[in-house]
Each structure stands twice: as structure tokens, then as C-alpha cells.
Predict the structure of Carbon starvation protein CstA.
Amino acid sequence: MNAILLMLLGLGAMFLGYVFYSKFVAEKIYQLDPNFRTPAHEFEDGVDFVPTNKYVLWGHHFTSVAGAAPIIGPAIAVIWGWVPAFLWVVFGTIFFAGVHDAGAIWASNRNKARSIGALTGDVVGRRSQSLFMIVIFLVLLMVNAVFATAISGLLINFPSSVVPVWGAIFVALIIGQFIFRKWMNLGTVSILGVIALYALIWAGPSYPIELPETVFGVSDNAQWIIVLFLYAAIASLLPVWMLLQPRDYINGLQLFIGLILLYGAVLISGPELVAPAFNTNTPEGTPSLVPLLFVTIACGAISGFHGLVASGTTSKQLDKETDARFVGYFGAIGEGSLSLATIIAATAGFATLADWQAVYHSFGQGGVAAFVSGGANILENGIGLNAEISQTLLTVMAVLFAGTTMDTGLRLQRYIFQEWGNIYNIKWMEKAAPATLLAVGSCLLLAFGAGGADGSGGLLIWPLFGTTNQLLAGLTLLVITTMLVKLGRPMYVTLIPLLFLLVMAIYALLIQLMTFYQKSDWFLLSLDLVVLVAAIWISLEAASTLTRLRREQRNKA
């Protein structure tokens, strides 16, 4: 099959989903009100609560939730064939992710921009809130620790990406001043920012930067991890308009230009999909497609991390409630389009089936490397872009998105500690600086405490990320569904994705539990049990709450 047809089918379906389905959900289910006074206006402080242009906020939300996950997941999942990955990405984006992201923004916006974890206490119950906060903390810990490892690895393997990656921060700081102080209109600032960013990408191969292999016994990988967390700590304390918003916004524009180039190259070269539609000859040890496909591809179909961003930082910057449709649902469309591009790069970016099979020789292979190499081949064949420039462009895309996710993730982890301080009346923990130190300290403890001097300890608990993340998405939909029932609105739009995700996540947790037991991996087995018990407990309490609310409504009627 030609990749052009796959591209047109995928993008066309997602476009129709935004035009028709998101409009229905926004107007009939969430009933977004343009006159509702958002928390960004009610609590405006110039630091976290800042009313923001919807296009800039879309850039923040989209790039914060994207990270490297919509690249890694699909580029691994195509081992089962491109059809299952394609269908889950397209239908997951339309009926799951968009509803989830816009719903989390709406739910938080209607409750003083409180996080989805804090909302659980009011909507479901206090016991559920405590368990939910543990699940949220684990997800953030995994994201921050692992993305730091992933970024450091890319910076080491592709030294040509160092200049554009770190240069993008200075570009963001400059355009942030122009946007916030309105020194220049958004269109002009956007053009200048993109030109600066692509100039850095062009300059990257001419000025590669490599850290010393060891400094006082600390490896280059560990050096980058330390630098990344120092940067993330500073970024999480700065006002959102100064770095977080402009960095995310300019990265969002950069991604769409990158996607236009990649999709344009597909149109010009028309590569064939060399990977099988359904892979009936998977390598030994490859797990079953159900339920693993639905937890391997999270970002790009639906991801619990999105709910944390939507209710943690995005809702605090929402200018009008009606912007939730564009920011949340269209943000999910943007991520779905990235996952679709990844599927094409990882299946049509190879010359032959044998070349593809050489990469996908065992489960877990592919990932960012397959996206970069396959995408670079398509760019070179389609538009004649130099191979090194193509690789730098795609690597910078992956690193910048992982970096923006890490920025937001650490800020969210700071919010979690502050919320714990508020819940348990620990006054010093409610302050930003101590909460940030706790957030960074917990990540570094995992990175170096579990991973040793290399700092890659985040990879230790990464096998649990997919299931825990999808479980979190299901629990977020639980909160949204309960709110809809309380308001007397139709709940099937969120209930169907909720039930599907809970079944798949719990099924995957049970499979992993057996795997960890067979490997005598007692640490991961213990964590798996904690997450599993939390999931079942919260689900039972939520089911009880929903049943009670439905009974009360029937009695009232």
C-alpha cells in the first residue's frame, strides 16, 4: 500500500472529527460558556494564572502533552503491523483523546483550576483522592526521570542537535517578552521565532557539541541529566509567560512545519509501506496485541498525562471557556497527526521488508531511532533534504518535545507537592521553592539512587508507564463522567472510552504482574500491585458514586 493513501485517510478522518464531533461534544456535552469567568481571570497573578491567547495556549498544551511518547509508542507498536497502530491512533484521537483533553480542561476550569487529582476528593471521595494522587505522582516521576534519560541519550548520539535544542530556550525567552508585553503582533513574532529556530537547526551540524566522557567520575549521560533537571527546576519557577508558553508555542509551530515537510515529502516521493499490514510473524517474546497495543500507544491515541497538563497548567491560562475545544481537542489532533507521521516513517522509511525486519527483530525495538532514520530517508528522497540536516531536524523535534514535556511535568510535580501540603496542612510544602526542590529531589533520587552513577534509574520503573498512564486516563474520564451525571447531562461520550481503558489497563497490569513474578522482579511487582489496588479501589468507589447519583436523579424525576 502507498503511504499517501494512509496519510490522506488518517488526516481526513481527524479533520472531520474536529469539525463535527468536537463541536457536538463542546456544545451538547460540556456546554462550554463564553461568558464564564475563568480562573485565569479570577486568580490572575502573572506567574501561574495568566489569561492567554488561544493559539499560544494551544502551543503550550500540545507540545507539553506530546513529548517523545507519540513517537516512541507508535514506532514500537508497528511490530504488530501498521493497520492496528493506524486504527488505534485515528479512532483513539477522535473519540478518546480529544474528549479526554477538552473534558479535563472543562472540569478543572469549572473548579477553580484545581488538578484532576484534587477534584477526585470532591467528585468521588477522599479515599479515592489519596490513591489517585499516588498514581499521578508515579506517572510524573516516570515521565520526568525517563525523559531526562531519553534527551541526554539523543544529545550524546546527535551532537549536532545541541545548539538548536538549547538555542531554542533563548529564542523562547525573547519572543515571550514580545508576546506578553505586546511589543509586536503575534504573526510577526511567530515568523521571526520560526526563522531563528530553523537557523539554529541549519547551524547545528556545523557546530556539534559533545560533553567530556567523564568529569570527576560522572559520565556524559549523567552530566546532561543533572543539567536538564537544573534547567527544569528554574523553568518551573519562572512565570509561565516568560518561558513555558513561548517555548511551547514556538515548538508547536516548528512541529507543524516539520510535519508539513514530512507529509510533503510523502506526497512527492509516494513511498510504499514495506511493513506488513498485520504482522503474523512477530519475533519470539512479543506480547499479544490485546491489550498491549492500547498501552504501548498512549500519547497519540489517549494519555492520562494529558489530563494532568490540562488540569494542571492549561486550565490556569484559559482566557475563555470556549477555547477548551480548540486547545484541548485540536491539541489532541496535533498529537495524532504526529503519531500518524511516525507510523508512516517507521513503515515506509525503509527500502525493503528485510531492512524493516532487521530493525524490528524483537519487541521494544524501533522507537525514536526508527522515526529519525525512516523519516530522514523520506525527506531525502522526497524533497532532497540533506541526510544530516534531516536527521538533525527530526532529532530536534523529538528532543524539544521531550524537553517541553519535562518542563511542564516538573511544574506539575511541584503542584502535587503543594497540593499535598494544602491537604495535610504542611505550610512550608505549599510554597513553590520547597515544593520544586522536593520534585527535583525525588526525580534525581530515582535517576541516581536506582540507576547508579549513570543516572538512568527512571528506566527501572518505565515498564509500568504505559499501563499506569492509561489507567490515569480512565480515572480522569471517571471524574468527568461523574461531573456530567451530577449535572444531568449525557455521559456515554466519556463512559464508553472510560470502560474500554479501565478494562485494557487492568488487563495489562495483570499480565505484567505475572511477568514480574516469573522474573522475580519484586520491586516492579510491588509497584504493579499498588497501582492495581488503587485502580480497582477508585473504580469501585466511582461506580458506587455513579449508581447513587443515578438513583437520586430517578427519585427526583
Residues 3-281+304-461 form one domain. The chain is about 75% helix and 0% strand. The mean pLDDT is 88.
